[in-house]
Write a structure and sequence with these properties.
Helix 14 links the parallel strand 12 and strand 13. It is built from 14 helices and 13 strands. The protein is globular, with a radius of gyration of 22 Å. About 40% of the residues are buried. It has a 5-stranded mixed β-sheet, with helices on one face. The chain starts with a strand and ends in a 9-residue tail after the last strand. The chain has about 400 residues and is an alpha+beta fold. Helix 6 crosses helix 7 and helix 11 packs across helix 12.
């Protein structure tokens, strides 16, 4: 049987539509509308870097430019429509997914008990009961409020004091939950005090969660290998995802497709049976600035195959060896990634140090004006008084 080919242009359009980047970034960006964005994405990654805006806020703003950070805090802290936990990293997740995280809680508990004794300072397991009792008796707390008298160490994850490690263990294993953040500091309470009862008391068999993970990942990716399905939530094993694909293919729930990369190479993947009949349309030509942790770019290899865009964060690269900058933002126009920009809040304004267009991207007057207009919008979102361009910011010599 011939395997259908999903050409690169169609694949990019489908992928961007699944990630909320095919339509204009309009909408109120709060309440039910914001919850819908997070539902569609599956999760939004949280990150501490704040040179301009935190990752989760910029991800949401890229899709709803009326969004403001307080709206997410309302969903998380007041309305309990989302919760914070771990995917491949700390993330904001729809509350309806909580019951499926129980498999993750169980597996993470086993991994932490086996490995963290070797990786972390001191025996954190001896502190688990005391930390849990402290929260039960005295209410929510931060990591700085546990472990009185314990040596604090360097603060790096490898050198946490035992009670802080115990608190992290309790969170990762689902016994406590993040009730809110003060600044960027997590505040924890007992899970039964945080998660609404309907979701707290729901249970799923592991097989149901594996099916939920694979179907949810395929819905959001549009097409994927079994490895990409496993990696989407970082929740199940590659072997479990591969077994699901084998069964789903035999049951005609999914089909095989060859997805064309930007270089013309084909990659065998799985998709829903109607994938070749979808009319996803052409993405809006709107230019937008993306977070380095945007869901459309999280899988760097996939982004490179589909868009020809090679991106690596250079935070941990010595300054003299950086090719671009400490924390540069990808720039998308329509269905293309056209460059990356080094910008940050500086003295109350949004300072633009450099923009590097991708190879073959011509920065004519119209495109430069569109970029400057988006930067003005970004400055408003970031609470900046305006935009300041460094001399020579437009690097057109590529």
């Amino acid at each position: 049987m011939n395997v259908p080919i999903l050409d690169n242009r169609t694949a990019r359009h489908l992928f961007l539509a699944r990630h909320g980047l095919a339509t204009r970034p309009s909408g109120p960006g709060k309440g039910a509308d914001l919850k819908g964005v997070i539902d569609n994405l599956g999760f939004v990654q949280v990150d501490s870097v704040n040179t301009f805006a935190r990752a989760h806020d910029l991800i949401l703003w890229s899709r709803r430019q009326q969004y403001r950070p307080k709206a997410l805090q309302h969903l998380l802290h007041r309305d309990r429509q989302v919760f914070e936990h771990w995917t491949h990293d700390a993330s904001i997740i729809p509350i309806e997914s909580f019951a499926h995280w129980r498999l993750r809680f169980q597996r993470d508990a086993v991994r932490m008990e086996e490995r963290w004794k070797e990786w972390r300072r001191g025996d954190f397991t001896a502190k688990i009961d005391a930390v849990l009792r402290r929260i039960a008796d005295h209410g929510h707390c931060t990591s700085g409020q546990v472990g009185e008298g314990e040596e604090r160490g360097s603060g790096g994850w490898w050198d946490w004091h035992p009670s802080k490690t115990a608190l992290e263990y309790l969170w990762r294993s689902g016994q406590v939950s993040v009730v809110r953040r003060d600044g960027f500091t997590k505040v924890y309470d007992l899970t039964e005090r945080v998660i609404p009862a309907d979701h707290l008391n729901r249970r799923h068999h592991p097989e149901e969660t594996i099916d939920w993970c694979c179907t949810g990942a395929l819905d959001r990716l549009g097409f994927a290998t079994s490895g990409e399905l496993a990696a989407f939530w970082d929740h199940i094993t590659p072997a479990e995802a591969k077994a699901w694909c084998t069964t789903a293919l035999a049951d005609h729930r999914i089909i095989e497709v060859d997805v064309e990369g930007v270089d013309g190479k084909l990659r065998r993947s799985f998709a829903w049976p109607d994938v070749m009949d979808l009319n996803v349309g052409t993405p809006t030509p709107r230019l937008r600035i993306l977070s380095p942790f945007d869901p459309a770019l999280r899988d760097r290899k996939r982004a490179e195959r589909l868009f020809g865009f090679h991106y690596r964060i250079e935070i941990f690269v010595p300054e003299a060896k950086r090719k671009y900058g400490y924390y540069v933002f990808p720039v998308m126009e329509g269905d293309r990634l056209i460059g990356r920009i080094d910008m940050k809040r500086e003295d109350g304004v949004l300072a633009i140090r450099a923009f590097w267009p991708e190879q073959g991207v011509r920065m004519g007057t119209g495109r430069v004006q569109a970029l400057e207009t988006e930067l003005e919008r970004a400055a408003v979102f970031g609470g900046c008084e305006g935009v300041r361009f460094y001399e020579g910011w437009l690097r057109q010599d590529r």
